[in-house]
Amino acid sequence: AKKPGPGGERERDAPTADTDLPTRLAWYASEAFGDVTALFRKRGSFDASSSASSEEAGPASFAEAVDRLREDYDRAYFVTGQMDIPLYQEDCEFADPFVSFRGVSRFKKNLDNLGSFMRDVRLTVTAFDASEVDGVVQTKWSFRCELGLPWRPSLSASGGTKHVFNAQNRMVEHVESWDIDPAVALKQLVRPGKRQKKTGGS
């Protein structure tokens, strides 16, 4: 395993161990693609404020943390990148069916880069359950969008996210689970969208 970089962030962690090779390669390709496209676009006006230092005021209570997390969901944070940075521990662990790594800055970078390609985003939160005793918020959601690529693929999925908070009310784990197989989700990325099919068939 690679040692954490400055601030506890791992520069490049491998995808989860049970992820097959094609899926791992696709995940790395998508992250690299996002890095390249970041060189050719300007950051939005919200980005500067949402990239606030983790040393700024974090939540004073679990209730405040829950309220601030709700606001992140209202902004569709994991699509737009518009997230409350001080809500997260700097070395927060992020995991999904593709990858697991530590570091809120890397998570934010990925959202900024890849989120810029998402169009017609529809995010519906179907459950939002908070337990102060456990320091956990469990959500359920469904998601659909069109990607701004030449073949206009559509991506849709449903799942949930487990948010774990420490005694200082900062998030230390952000674990996504999807209700579809990761390989199925990746196939959506190479399938022409309905709009593209209509254009191509006309």
UniProtKB/TrEMBL annotation:
It comes from the Eukaryota. This is SnoaL-like domain-containing protein. It holds the Pfam family DUF2358. Residues 1-21 are annotated as: Disordered. PANTHER family: OS04G0578200 PROTEIN (PTHR34123). It comes from Chloropicon roscoffensis. InterPro entries: DUF2358 (IPR018790), NTF2-like_dom_sf (IPR032710).
